[in-house]
Design goal:
Blueprint (H helix, E strand, L loop, with lengths): L1 H17 L11 H8 L6 E2 L12 H13 L1 H6 L10 H15 L8 E4 L1 H13 L5 E5 L4 H8 L4 E5 L1 E2 L2 E2 L1 H10 L6 E4 L13 H14 L3 E4 L24 E6 L11 E5 L2 H15 L4 H11 L2 H29 L4 E3 L7 E6 L6 H10 L3 E2 L1 E2 L12 E5 L5 H17 L3
Parallel strand pairs: 1-13, 3-4, 3-7, 7-8, 8-9
Antiparallel strand pairs: 2-10, 5-6, 9-10, 11-12, 12-15, 14-15
Helix pairs in contact: 3-11, 6-7, 6-10, 8-9, 12-14
This protein binds pyridoxal-5'-phosphate.
C-alpha cells in the first residue's frame, strides 16, 4: 500500500512536469461541464452555435457524392492524398465567390483550404506568435480564437468595441501607445460571435489604414457574412487595397455543413502563405480530400447553392424575429439586448450590481431547464460577469419563445 501511494505521489507531479509550459492555459472549461447537463431533452439550450440540421442539403450532397465516386478519375482522386494548399477547383470557386458576392479580387493561388476556419486560426497562431506576443482583440471576442492563441501563449490587448464594432480611434490609441507592437489585430466584422455586432461601413477602411500605418497584420474572420437577414452586404476589409497584410477567413460551416470541415484562408501576402503551407502540412498534410471534392461538386451549381443559402437566411430570419419578440415580451426591464441583423446570436446584459451569469446558468439549467453561454469566457481578461450569449438558429420559433419565457422566469427569481 505504501509503495502504491508513493508511486502515485511521484507519478502526478512528474506527469505534469513533462507537459509543455504552453499547456498550462489549455484547460477544459467548467462551463463545458455545465453545458453537458443541458443536452438532456427537456432542456431548451440557447448555448451552442449550431446550424439547423434540417437545413443540411443531404439529398444534394448524396447525389454529389455518388457522382464523384462513380467517376473513375474523380472517384479515385477524391480518396487519395492531395496537395496541402487545397483542391484546385475549390480554390478557384472561393476566388470566384469572393468576387461575385463581395467584389473582392483575389487569385486562386491566394486561397488556402483549411480544416474549418478554426484550423486557420490555429495556423495563424503557429506562424505569427512567440510566447508573450500581444494580439489585439475586440472585447468581447470569439472564444475559439482565444483558445487557439492561448496555446501559443499570446497576451491580449483589448480595444473598445461598441454597437458599431471596434472603435478605430481606440485601436489607433492602443497601437500608438504600446511599447512593443502587437503581432496581429483580429476581428469578426459581420454579426460577430458572441455579440452579433457588425462593424459599421464607415469604420472599415479606417481600421485597414490604421493597421497599414502601424504595419500590424489584420485577421478578418467572417463565418457569418452570408447570413445577413436584411440590408446590403458591407465591404470586407480585404477588399480595400492595402500595403499591409490582411488575412481573410471564410468557411462552408454556416452555409452548408460544418461537419465537412471545409474552410478557406485568403492572403495575398506570399511570404505569409509560404509559412502557413508547411505549418499546415505538419498538422494534417491536407484537408480531407473527399470533403473538398464533395463541397466543390455540390456548390458548383450556382443556382442550387444560391437557393440553399437563401433558404437558410429565411429560416434564421424567422428564428431571429421569434427571439427578438420573446425577449421584448418576457425579459425583466433590467435586461438589455441587441437586435442582430444576421448571424446566429443575441447578446444580453443584465444591469444588476451582483449578477453573475455563470451562477445564473447553474440555477436556470436546474430549475427552469434552459441554458445559454455566460459571457465571461468571451472576454479575454474574463472580467465581465453580467452578459450572456443566446443562439437562435438551432430550434423552431415556438421553442425559442418557450425558452426565453423560462429564462426570464429564472432571471426574476434570481436574487437582486
Ligand atoms: C467567429 C468564428 N470564427 C471561426 C469559427 C470556426 O468555424 P469553422 O466551423 O469553420 O471551424 C467560428 C465557429 O463558430 C466562429 O464563430
Amino acid at each position: 500500500m505504501q509503495g502504491k501511494l508513493r508511486a502515485m505521489e511521484i507519478a502526478t507531479p512528474g506527469h505534469v512536469n513533462r507537459l509543455a509550459a504552453r499547456t498550462q492555459r489549455l484547460r477544459a472549461s467548467t462551463i463545458r461541464e455545465i453545458l453537458k447537463v443541458t443536452q438532456q431533452p427537456d432542456v431548451i439550450s440557447f448555448a451552442g452555435g449550431l446550424p439547423a440540421p434540417e437545413l443540411f442539403p443531404r439529398k444534394d450532397l448524396a447525389e454529389a457524392a455518388a457522382r464523384i465516386l462513380a467517376d473513375p478519375v474523380d472517384g479515385s482522386n477524391s480518396l487519395q492524398y492531395s496537395v496541402t494548399e487545397g483542391h484546385p477547383p475549390l480554390r478557384a470557386w472561393v476566388a470566384k465567390r469572393l468576387h461575385e458576392v463581395w467584389g473582392v479580387e483575389v487569385a486562386p493561388d491566394d486561397v488556402l483550404v483549411t480544416g474549418g476556419s478554426q484550423q486557420g486560426l490555429d495556423l495563424i497562431g503557429k506562424v505569427f506568435l512567440n510566447p508573450g506576443d500581444t494580439v489585439v482583440l475586440e472585447n468581447p471576442s470569439y472564444l475559439g480564437t482565444i483558445q487557439a492563441w492561448d496555446a501559443y501563449e499570446a497576451e491580449y490587448l483589448t480595444v473598445e468595441t461598441d454597437a458599431l464594432g471596434m472603435v478605430p480611434e481606440a485601436l489607433e490609441r492602443t497601437l500608438r501607445t504600446t511599447s512593443v507592437p502587437p503581432k496581429l489585430v483580429y476581428l469578426v466584422p459581420n454579426f460577430g460571435n458572441p455579440t452579433g455586432v457588425t462593424l459599421a461601413q464607415e469604420r472599415r477602411e479606417a481600421i485597414v489604414r490604421i493597421c497599414e500605418r502601424y504595419d500590424v497584420p489584420l485577421v478578418e474572420d467572417d463565418p457569418y457574412g452570408e447570413l445577413r437577414y436584411e440590408g446590403r452586404h458591407l465591404t470586407p476589409l480585404i477588399a480595400y487595397p492595402s500595403a499591409g497584410t490582411i488575412i481573410y477567413l471564410g468557411t462552408n460551416s454556416k452555409i452548408c455543413a460544418p461537419g465537412l470541415r471545409v474552410a478557406w484562408m485568403v492572403c495575398r501576402d506570399g511570404a505569409v502563405r509560404e509559412r502557413i503551407v508547411p505549418a499546415k502540412q505538419a498538422a494534417d498534410l491536407h484537408t480531407n480530400t473527399f470533403c473538398q471534392f464533395l463541397f466543390t461538386e455540390y456548390a458548383k451549381d450556382g443556382a442550387t447553392f444560391a437557393a440553399h443559402v437563401e433558404s437558410i437566411r429565411d429560416c434564421y430570419r424567422q428564428r431571429r424575429n421569434a427571439m427578438s419578440e420573446a425577449l421584448h415580451a418576457f425579459m425583466p426591464s433590467d435586461v438589455r439586448f441587441n437586435e442582430p441583423g444576421g448571424g446566429l446570436f443575441f447578446w444580453a446584459t443584465v444591469e444588476r450590481p451582483n449578477i453573475d451569469t455563470e451562477a445564473l446558468l447553474h440555477e436556470v439549467a436546474e430549475k427552469q431547464r434552459v441554458a445559454f453561454v455566460p459571457g465571461r469566457a468571451f472576454f479575454p481578461h474574463h472580467d465581465v460577469k453580467n452578459a450572456m450569449r443566446l443562439n437562435f438558429s438551432n430550434m423552431p420559433p415556438e421553442r425559442i419563445r418557450e425558452g426565453v419565457e423560462r429564462l426570464a422566469q429564472g432571471l426574476r427569481a434570481y436574487p437582486a
